[in-house]
Design brief:
heterodimer, A: 137 residues, alpha/beta, 5 helices, 22% strand, globular, B: 368 residues, 5-stranded parallel beta sheet, 47% helix, elongated
């Protein structure tokens, strides 16, 4: 049986990846999780998936902002130019930023649904999932 | 003031004789450019940098003032001197309003008057250039400081936030009461440090944000501060109540107002009395034509009477146990003063604390 939705995380920090993956496993056991340590890995995966032509479940993409090489916003720009990579995908930034410029950029980016604050709070993601109708109250 | 560099002067006059005598008089002292009409003048400006422009008012085609007006957008820097007859009062008025003239010299000009005027104009030109350079380097320094502050804040905050995530995980997975106690202690210190970083950033932001006319939506602002506590494990058993009555527009400096609200609400939330059944944080806002009144109260531990003045001092901490940096209320007081407002504190030990902030509609009060 395929899982009802996917949570895909991109974060360069090992500890932050651990926090999110364990909390997700605990709070959303029904979700399939995929974890990438860089934007390149993510994009490579999304491209390979295009070839396989298998339809994936609704997907929540959680992007860290500050990462070496490709920042979260760089990833957004790449996805913007390749919208076929993000079919059936809802994108959230997940960051500890308190820089107004980041906060503004998140609200200006049509692809970004919301900026979720670190530390990752399952409750805040739960609200989003409810709103998207991916889980029931 | 003037350096060794020769002053570069452009002189525009429709009479060739005047141009000739200007050149004859000044060519040793100045780098002289002359033009018979506006068109030639434009051409010279395109190819040369000049410090001072002297233009005759009465020229066929385009007056001196019109010429100045036409070059200001592209060449704002040269200092402008207008040569004009006594009768041209209209020209004088226009020159002031449109041509931004440094000096008028009556025609026919005499060599000494013109020399002094050009020399003074050169000084002004140099001073302005210097000021411009300083402004550019100041702006650069500001931008660098900005980047520095934000990158430091991120580099400090990211690991802190990771620690708090690990603590939350541990709270879910560990059952040893000793371990849980240690995690709580660590968590408290992490929150304290994080609050300190927030305060520093806010203070930094407020020192170079000079707008006092940002429209404020109190309801939105209060809600967003409450939002920060929604998932905070320390906010369990806490009731938040907000009532905002705002029917008129209110403008002020939003960064400073944010400092006031977030610190007072954070304190109200933090200094809870664990002896009570539940903790309560109330925010009441009333805005009218004259002012905005913000009241923030709690049923927490309260503040001793003898300490009520001291809580506004920098680095003073009232509660021995509780986690504070000693910066919050100092920043609040500073922000209130800067906004021209007042802050009152009422508190009964063991019953709770109420802060009342009264702010006038937007204006800045310069600190003494």
């Amino acid at each position: 049986m395929s899982k009802s939705f996917e949570i895909v995380l991109v974060d360069d920090s090992f500890i932050d990846r651990t926090i999110v993956s364990r909390m997700v496993a605990r709070s959303f056991p029904e979700a399939e999780t995929r974890i990438f340590i860089s934007g390149h890995e993510l994009i490579q995966f999304l491209m390979s998936e295009l070839d396989s032509a298998v339809q994936h479940a609704p997907r929540i993409l959680l992007l860290d902002i500050y990462m070496p090489d490709l920042s979260g916003f760089d990833i957004i720009n790449q996805l913007n130019e390749n919208q076929n990579l993000i079919a059936n995908t809802y994108i959230y930034m997940l960051s500890s930023t308190i820089d107004d410029r980041d906060i503004e950029e998140c609200s200006n980016q049509p692809l970004v649904r919301k900026l979720l604050n670190k530390p990752f709070q399952p409750k805040s993601l739960k609200e989003e999932l409810l709103e998207l109708g991916l889980i029931n109250a | 003031m003037s350096s060794e560099r020769k002053t570069r002067v452009l002189y525009i006059d429709d009479e060739q004789n005047n141009l000739n005598s200007f050149r004859a008089n000044f060519r040793r002292e100045y780098e002289v450019h002359v033009a018979l009409n506006a068109e030639e003048g434009h051409q010279i400006l395109k190819e040369n940098i000049v410090d001072v422009i002297v233009a005759d008012q009465r020229m066929p085609g385009m007056t001196g003032v019109e010429f100045f007006e036409s070059i200001i957008p592209d060449y704002p820097d040269p200092i402008r001197i207008l040569l004009t007859g006594y009768a041209d009062i209209e020209a004088v008025i226009n020159a002031i309003n449109k041509g931004q003239i440094y000096k008028f010299i009556s025609k026919p000009w005499n060599e000494d008057t013109l020399r002094i005027a050009i020399s003074n104009a050169r000084d002004i030109f140099d001073a302005r250039q210097e000021l411009k350079q300083k402004n550019i380097s100041l702006q650069k320094a500001y931008d660098e400081l900005d980047r520095f502050v934000y990158s430091v804040s991120h580099d400090l905050r990211a690991p802190l936030v990771s620690i708090s995530g690990v603590i939350q995980l541990a709270r879910q997975e560990v059952s040893d009461p000793k371990a849980l106690e240690y995690f709580d202690m660590t968590g408290q210190m992490v929150d304290k440090l994080d609050e300190f970083i927030h305060n520093i950033i806010n203070y930094y932001k407020s020192t170079h944000d000079y707008t006092f006319e940002t429209p404020i939506d109190f309801d939105k602002m209060v809600k967003s501060v409450f939002e920060d506590y929604r998932y905070n494990p320390n906010a369990r058993n806490t009731r938040f109540n907000a009532e905002v009555n705002q029917n008129v527009e209110f403008k002020t400096n939003d960064v400073k107002l944010q400092i006031i609200l977030s610190n007072l609400i954070s304190n109200a939330f933090k200094f809870k009395d664990i002896a009570k059944d539940f903790h309560e944080v109330n925010v009441y806002v009333e805005v009218d034509e004259e002012r905005a009144v913000v009241e923030i109260s709690d049923n927490g531990v309260g503040i001793r009477e003898e300490n009520r003045e001291k809580v506004f001092q920098m680095f003073y901490r009232d509660a021995k146990e509780n986690a504070g940096s000693g910066l919050g209320l100092y920043l609040v007081k500073e922000a209130v003063t800067r906004l021209g407002g007042e802050i009152e504190l009422q508190s009964i030990l063991g019953e709770g604390t109420r802060f009342k902030v009264t702010l006038p509609h937007g204006r800045e009060v310069i600190a003494e």
